[in-house]
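Annex B. Sample input.
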Amino acid sequence: MKLNLDITVPSKTEWVEAVMNDFDSFLQDHLDCERKASSMAMSFVAKYPDRKEIISELIEIGIEELEHFQQVYQLMEKRGIPLPSSMGEDPYLKALLKLCHSGRNERFLDRLLIASVVETRGAERFRLVSEAQTDPELHRFYKILWASEAKHGHVFVKMALNYFDQERVYDRLAWWIDREGEVIDNLEIRPALH
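Annex B, continued. Sample output.
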């Protein structure tokens, strides 16, 4: 049984260049992405309290993402980077969420698979950021995050398999991977995680 997934459209080298040319802005966006990831995990707990098989794992992910938020904040403090006064919408996530089914079960499956795809994209991008770093501390930090995001990508597929048959999960996952590739390929290049 395959729990992981592969993205079909790699991030552009221009994206890495934009991040490295304005790393302070990237850190501010990264901070907000970790906050959103923690909130997303906890929103599953709040919206689907009957899905007992996955509650503990969702709470663990929520805590881990909040720890990542804290670690990014500490990096920002060391570098004298302020918290952003406000964060705009994430065009990547907004585009993906627009494609969700609306029925309770269908939306539940879609949200789990979107989470998986988003975490996998995060892993790919953190790997690129890690490899582009000349600072050993940042290289190591993003290497650790890369592994964590990849693990979360697997976990959300495993969660879906608790409630939906394998063929349905993998067919829909393949559809989401294709849609995610289209969305990422059409995004404006900016110093942001997405």
